[in-house]
Amino acid sequence: MSQAAPVLKSAPPASTASSSQMIRVMGIVSLVCGLLIVTTHLGTLEPIRKNQEILTGEAVAELLPGVQKQVTYYAQASGELAVSNGSATAPAGSRLIAGYTASGQLLGVVIEARERGYADMITGMYAYSPEQQAIVGFKVVELKETPGLGDKIVTDATFLANFRKLEARLDDTGQKLLHAIVTVKNGTKKNPWEIDAISGATISSRAVGRMLHKSAEQLLPVITKHRGRIEKGE
Amino acid sequence: MSSHSHGAVTVNSGPENAEVFFSGLWKQNPVFVQALGMCPMLAITNSVRNAIAMGIATLFVLVCSNALISMVRRIVPRQVRIATYILIIATFVTIVEYLIKAVSIPVYKALGPFIALIVVNCMILGRAEAFASKNTVGKSILDGLGMGIGFAIGLLCLGSVREILGAGSFLGIPLFGPNYQPWVLFLLPPGGFFTLGGWLLVFAWWKNRQRRQKDLALGARA
Questions:
Q1: What is the SS3 string spanning A54-96?
Q2: Does B85 contact A at CB distance below 8 Å?
Q3: Hey, is the C-beta of A228 within 8 angstroms of any chain B C-beta?
Q4: Has this prediction a pTM greater than 0.80?
Q5: Do A17 and B79 touch (CB under 8 A)?
């Protein structure tokens, strides 16, 4: 390796260092490093949380235009719904963010979902309207899909038009979807619960379909069960 | 730049401050001359924003780790020096990870695992071993600044070309209007290699030209 111009050759510290000396030095350095990390962690805790909140808020506003008020719920594995009390430690379960107009009318529920795409996990957020029994908006939050191909799911207007009103109706039992949400080959969409794939980005389009189907099948029954509570914002 | 401190050894011997700083920027540029840190270089330079963020993160880690390593250089036994350097570098990488998250989460997500991989950027360990472990704190900071900025310039050179050709934009601002068909290859890994090769060619050509002109000038005088 090439080195920078002449360097000062200070005598290397005693090459006959004892084990205890090595342990001592490394211990001290580790202690200093540990303190530095803990200080930074504590110092950045609040800004990071705020950043995340702003990011979520922006996504919700984009998915539910006209939203004025938000309430965060957590759907627990037992099928119960817990309200976030605003503390830093969130309860377990999937996060549901209900958005309301200024007058308190429920616009929809924003849900975060993840699914394996072509390159890595794709994270998305979608808005579900209990009133229309449909998905009324979808947005990719994070992806590592191939530029120019898979990443079209973020921007392709025709693809995003699928989610203006994508049917997500529960069957009579209220436990599963009446029609599975599926991605179909580009140009063959016939039913309101089908997603028209982007040609050249089939794998990523299908991942979005699977993501929405899995998440809707799991969470829509919970939302429907507690619809009254969510509408009142309790 | 020109004053090489050969000759009498004084307490303050070693490279001059200005020389320390500028050698990283140009003569010893980590990207174009030493070809170090190629992994993050090729992986995250698909946009100018990522290149700048990575450049700043690496600069921060390099300056801080150089400073701390230089501070402890006399007390660290030779046998555990590499372990100590890695420990110090990893500490600052963790810190920079928190800081990036605090500044912008989208940037943090875009850089992904490559923030953590700064730990194994050979340029940083290289500077610790080759420079900070033998020089004063002040000079080590200058060296870190020079090398870090040199690295950032390299990232920016790659990032600009790749974003302009691959996405038709600069820092997210569209340059060529809606009819531009992006040259997507440049956002993909092969585009990284092509662009790096292109820049290395430019630098080699420029260096050759300078040498030729010097030879010509000498020849004319003789």
A1: HHHHHHHHHHCCCCCEEEEEEECCCCCEEECCCCCCCCCCEEE
A2: no
A3: no
A4: no
A5: yes
Structure tokens at B169: 């934009």
Per-residue burial over B2-21, b if 16 or more Cβ lie within 10 Å, else e, is eeeeeeeeeeeebbbeebbb
Number of domains in chain B: 1
User: A104 pLDDT band (50/70/90 cuts)?
Assistant: confident
Residue B43 falls inside a structural domain: yes
Residues B126, A22: C-beta atoms closer than 8 Å: no
Parent domain of B188? 17-221
Looking at the predicted complex, does its ipTM rise above 0.90? no
pLDDT digits (tens, 9 = 90+) for B39-84: 888 888 888 999 999 999 999 999 999 999 999 999 999 889 999 9
Distance, in Å, from the CA atom of B63 to the CA atom of B150, rounded to the nearest integer, reads 13
Instruction: Report whether B43 contacts B191 (CB < 8 A).
Output: no
User: Is B2 inside any structural domain?
Assistant: no
In chain A, where does DSSP find H-type helix? Answer: 19-63, 152-155, 157-161, 202-225, 227-232
Give the C-alpha separation, B169 to B152, whole Å: 20
Tell me the pLDDT tens digit for each residue of A25-66.
999 999 999 999 999 999 999 999 999 888 888 889 999 988
CA trace torsion B15, B20, B23, B24 (10° rounding): 140
Contact assessment for residue B65 and residue B85, using Cβ atoms and an 8 Å cutoff? yes
In chain B, where does DSSP find H-type helix? 17-22, 38-44, 48-71, 81-103, 105-111, 122-127, 137-167, 189-221
> From its phi and psi, is residue A196 left (phi > 0), alpha (psi between -120 and 50) or beta?
beta
At a CB cut-off of 8 Å and minimum separation 6, what does A93 contact? Answer: A74, A75, A76, A77, A82
Rounded CA separation B18/B87 (Å): 29
Which of A7, A9, A147 is nearest residue B184 as measured by Cβ atoms?
A147
Q: In whole angstroms, what separates CA B187 from the centre of its chain?
A: 21
B37 in the Ramachandran plot: left (φ > 0), alpha (ψ -120 to 50) or beta?
Answer: left
- Interchain pair B134, A9: CB under 8 A: yes
Tell whether B157 is covered by a domain.
Answer: yes
Residue where the block lists tokens 């795409």? A117
| Token code pair at residue B69 | 């390593």
Q: What sign does the dihedral A59-A63-A68-A72 (CA atoms) show?
A: negative
Classify residue B7: in a domain, yes or no. no
**CA Rg, chain B, in Å?**
20
Interchain contact, A6 vs B73, CB within 8 Å: no
